[in-house]
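Table S5 (text form). Sequence records supplied for joint modeling of the two-component complex.
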Amino acid sequence: MIAAFRTELVKQVLRLRTFVVLAIVVLIPVIMTIANKANPPGGGERGGGPGEGLRRLTQETGLIMPAFALRLMSVFLLVIVVALFAGDAVAGDASWGNLRYLLVRPVKRARVIGSKLAVSVLLSWVAIVLVVVVALAAGVIAFGSSGLNVGFGFSQSRGELLGHLGLATVYVAWALTGVLAFSFMVSTMTDSPAGAISAGVGLYFLSQILDSITALGSIRYGLPTHYFDSWVDMFTRNHVGSDLARGALLQLGYILLFCGIAAWWFRRKDILS
Amino acid sequence: MSERVVEIVGITKRFGGQVLAVDDLSFTVERGQICGLLGPNGAGKTTSLRILLGLVRADAGEARLFGQRVRPGSPLLGRVGALIEQAAFVPQLSGLRNLRLWWEAGGARFADADVDGALAVAGLGDAIHRKVKTYSQGMRQRLGLARVLLGRPEVLVLDEPTNGLDPQEMREIRLLLHRLADAGATILFSSHVLAEVEQVCTHAVVMDRGRLIASGAVAELIGAAGDVYIEVDDVTAARRVLEQLPAVIGVESESPGLAVTLRDGRRSDVVAALVGAGVGVETITARRRLEDAFVGLVAESR
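The corresponding structure-token record, covering 575 residues in total, follows.
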């Protein structure tokens, strides 16, 4: 398993695509920080996109910047990143025709799929951690590293903010692993990496759309993205809610389901590519 | 007794429950044989090879290597070098990096592989350090053959191994296969180039529409219809002798020798009769080519 994991990791890390993706996730928090510093939100502004509340708080301390970056990037970019790493994992090798050679090396199918899943999870989590680390560094440089105190009795110490940041990073990584698992499952079923990547992104947006239909009632609580943003309350309300636990458990169910189907499917699959 | 290295036993495979790709196929390849797998497009050759390599599951029957049933990822495959359809690699990595990663994925050290031998076969020179996406089809195919040889395999399973190669490269591959067979390797390979099979193979298996229609030594398959070409030291005397043999249907001049059509006699009987009559026999070969035999066998099966 270690040999298969190591060779898969080397193979993925040496690809230009991986560098480009990681460069993008490093660059965007820097751009966000510079833009936020140059154009601070005006007092009279209302509304705004996702994370607008967090954006306002970034003016108080740079420790909020990673939360703002996570919020903004987990809406779209990080979804694509994890879908890319997972969707390309098996289908990419299949589309090159390389998968059959790996299997006749021989490497057992369970090892092939296990190593590919592990590497796609690792690269995805590295991307998410990079967003946080780079945004933290840029945020501290631009806005300092003090605690948060905006009056009305709402304050968070530096320690609390860093603790919340650590928890938010883990939660977002776990939440996106559900999307990753779905892309990975589709990746075992097709020889088209683009199809598998699109499937992961499609699942995310479909779930978001369904979640916005309040008439669906309690069904929404079972949607994979329903608790995606529950972590934001830690920063805007200083509140670690039970929704985090519900969200984590819901993702665990989806991850086990999608990975289980992927393993079952791949074990029985005729390799024709 | 010769060792059965490859055994295909009653294999049947349907895709999607509808398309019958392989139908109750059985054949064996013994140690040291170079066996050609022949058949028209869609005959089921590639599917059969994939079943042998554990890539495709048979609906019935089984494939065996060294007497043991092959399952997906079976350690037995470590003794096999395989090239299935086109050689495929990670295009963004160099040829050498591809070889190394593929080898190390099996948990072995690259230093233990026959890298020098494999690179000699690839003959890519400095291009081995270039990204595979810059390679021509022929370069990829040669790199694929190099990968086959990394593990010093006892059995080679090659699906159209000379695809994309120029005539000189094809000749080198034929010589390589002969060398490997002389060194004790067993080779099963499919090809559409019948002249190539005739030159390389000791044995052949002919398939059509998923079924076995003939198998055996190439010389037997070619000679089945009984046409032979003979060169002798006295053509006139030889003609007189041959025309009196009951096993001979016809004798025609085909300078500098004679074309002889046999009813069901053996070539050895013809040679014995000529030598007994004092005629020196220089050459006796099958007059038909494998292509003739192949076309005839496929036509008969339909």
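Note: Chain B touches chain A through 33 residues (CB under 8 Å).
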